[in-house]
Write a structure and sequence with these properties.
Elements lengths: L9 H10 L9 H9 L4 E4 L6 H11 L3 E5 L3 H13 L4 E3 L6 H12 L7 E4 L1 H6 L1 H12 L3 E6 L21 H5 L5 E5 L4 H10 L6 E4 L7 E7 L3 H14 L4 E5 L3 H13 L4 E4 L5 H12 L5 E4 L12 E6 L6 H8 L9 E7 L1 H13 L4 H19 L5 H8 L7 H5 L6 H7 L1 E5 L1 H16 L6 H9 L4 H5 L16 H13 L3 E9 L2 E8 L3 H5 L6 E5 L5
Parallel strand pairs: 1-6, 1-7, 2-4, 2-5, 3-4, 5-6, 8-13, 9-11, 9-12, 10-11, 12-13
Antiparallel strand pairs: 14-17, 15-16
The structure holds adenosine-5'-diphosphate (ADP).
Adenosine-5'-diphosphate binds next to α3.
């Protein structure tokens, strides 16, 4: 820690170990906590499950005063408070629905000279419209007891993000009103554009950045061509064969689609249920609870089903319709495998889904500018789906401006994405030396003024004594059998490649009137190869030997 502003505190470590019962910090946690305690604004980008909460909860406990946490969802807040209470950490929320008695007791605690509360959770709309709260925050600030403001799920502040919430826009007032109170913004996803926008919207001028890798090494990505009805039966088979009784999510585009798919899967004996915005809150909560407790295995949902789901053992997420953007896809597929075990993310893709989403964008509200962004996002996910060669992890992570070494994806056959898995079944070998030998041999023969066909050369190199080969005395030449260890089809593949790349060429010659034959000659690029300015490689099946 020699060169960092290290703020070592035994109290911090004691709380970390004793109160949270943890032993080692995860990447970036300690650094972020330290920066927060030094009074910096902090921007924390960590994938879901990375341990963001600790980055503000621990500083909150060891700091004087109260930390205010803004979080978009009631359910998230309630979960957080429950887990804090189980650790004996004094925390409270001011959600609608609490009794006025409870609310009053929270306010009176906050008015005290040394409030017993350490963390106060509120939703953004509460911050905007509640005079009582605004007043209490002001007095906390005046008394130097407003320790930190935490904006959880900070991407909600940006309309370029995947989950824009208009109320988040109002959070810019914090930096205006309480300039010296540090802000901590946390999110599990943000492109460069969204990051900039978050800072701008929150009026943060300077911040420390803590950006963790977004790679989810235990998720296996695959895109499968979608054939409408037959794909549904394929999905049913897939679930029964590979994921029997395991938890999964199937994302669908419309409510009707959710109902239909749940119906078809149930008919196939799979415990599936439909979930969408057309159901009452009560019904939706009930369905979610039954899925969480494994009464249902598969939930067929629109993207309304999402934030706040914290089921660790989701073994697969299937997109039966195209996600709206790579960012959405990262979020939605990211609900799989939170327990760290291998989980699978499939997109069933066909081009017509793109048109369906494009229609939605066209007909939807918003300015032309936002529509443009939506279209851009859509085209990015379409090219992700249509790409059959690049690493899917790399494509996703590059979207978040993270460089990813694809060797990490290829390395493990069990977790490689579909495009990288193919690389396991092929090998790419360097054949520059062999190519130079072949081109030199052909050059020598050609310089004697004779011309031979593709097949003739293959026969010579492979060492096959055909009538033609013997007739020209080639069985005694030093090039006969030069590629004896090659198998014929690989040798043919190589010579074709040498022709395609211009090191050799095929020339049509009239050998009798109206009778043409194709002869192999030296190509225009041969010199480059012979001077070793270029390399030649060949792609072979991993099981093939030359
Ligand atoms: P996020 O908000 O980034 O999705 P959470 O803060 O909810 O993640 O943390 C995810 C899980 O990881 C929680 O169960 C939390 O207790 C656990 N966790 C966080 N930090 C650590 C750590 N340093 N060591 C072990 N577990 C941790």
């Amino acid at each position: 820690f020699a060169n960092t502003n290290f703020n070592f505190s035994w109290e911090l470590l004691a709380v970390f170990k004793r109160t949270f019962g943890l032993r080692h910090f995860r990447p970036n946690q300690f650094e972020a906590i330290n920066a927060a305690l030094l009074g910096h604004n902090c921007f924390i980008l960590m994938p879901t499950g990375g341990g963001k909460s600790l980055c503000y909860q621990l500083p909150a406990i060891v700091s004087k005063g109260v930390t205010v946490v803004i979080s978009p969802l009631k359910s998230l807040i309630i979960d957080q408070i429950q887990s804090l209470k189980s650790l004996d950490i004094p925390a409270a929320h001011l959600l609608g629905g609490i009794t006025s008695e409870k609310e009053n007791s929270i306010y009176s605690e906050l008015w005290k000279a040394d409030p017993g509360l350490k963390l106060l959770y509120v939703t953004p709309e509460k911050v905007a419209g509640n005079k009582k709260l605004i007043q209490v925050l002001r007095t906390l600030h005046r008394r130097n007891l407003l320790s930190r403001i935490v904006i959880d799920e900070a991407h909600c502040v940006s309309q370029w993000g995947h989950d824009f919430r208009p109320d988040y826009k109002l959070l810019g007032v914090f930096k205006q009103n309480y300039q010296n109170v540090p802000i901590m913004a946390l999110t599990a996803t943000a492109t460069q554009r969204v990051r900039k926008d978050i800072l701008h919207q929150l009026n943060i001028e300077e911040t420390k950045w803590f950006v963790s890798s977004f790679n989810r090494p235990n998720l296996v990505y695959e895109v499968i061509p979608k054939k409408n009805k037959s794909s549904l039966l394929e999905i049913a088979k897939l679930i029964k064969k590979r994921f029997a009784r395991q938890s999964g999510i199937i994302y669908c585009m419309t409510k009707i689609e959710c109902d239909n798919i749940a119906f078809i899967l149930s008919r196939e004996g799979i415990r599936a249920v439909s979930y969408h915005a057309g159901l009452t809150d009560k019904k939706r909560n009930n369905i979610q609870m039954l899925w969480t407790s494994n009464e249902f295995n598969v939930i067929c949902a629109t993207i309304a089903f999402g934030m706040g789901i914290d089921k660790p053992d989701v073994r697969y997420v299937i997109h039966y319709s195209l996600p709206h953007s790579i960012e959405n896809y990262y979020q939605e597929s990211g609900r799989a495998g939170r327990d760290g075990d291998i989980a699978y993310c499939f997109i069933y893709y066909n081009h017509s889904d793109m048109h369906r989403i494009a229609k939605l964008i066209e007909l939807g509200g918003g300015t032309n500018e936002t529509k443009k962004v939506h279209f851009h996002n859509l085209y990015r996910i379409v090219s992700y789906c249509e790409n059959k060669k690049d690493c899917r992890r790399a494509m996703q992570l590059n979207y978040f401006d993270e460089q990813f070494d694809i060797a990490q994806c290829i390395a493990d056959e069990k977790t490689a994405c579909d495009n990288c898995r193919i690389k396991h079944s092929i090998k790419i070998i360097d054949v520059t030396d062999e190519s130079i030998n072949l081109v030199r041999a052909i050059q020598k023969i050609c310089s004697s003024g004779k011309s031979f066909t593709f097949t003739h050369y293959v026969d010579i190199f492979i060492g096959k004594k055909t009538q033609q080969v013997v007739a020209h005395g080639h069985e005694n030449s030093n090039i006969f059998g030069k590629a004896l260890h090659w198998n014929r089809s690989n040798l043919e593949q190589l010579i074709h490649k040498l022709i395609l790349e211009g090191y050799l060429k095929k020339e049509m010659v009239e050998i009798e009137s109206d009778i043409l034959n194709a002869y192999i000659r030296i190509g225009p690029e041969a010199e480059k190869l012979l001077s070793r300015l270029v390399k030649v490689s060949l792609t072979l099946s991993s099981k093939t030997n030359l």
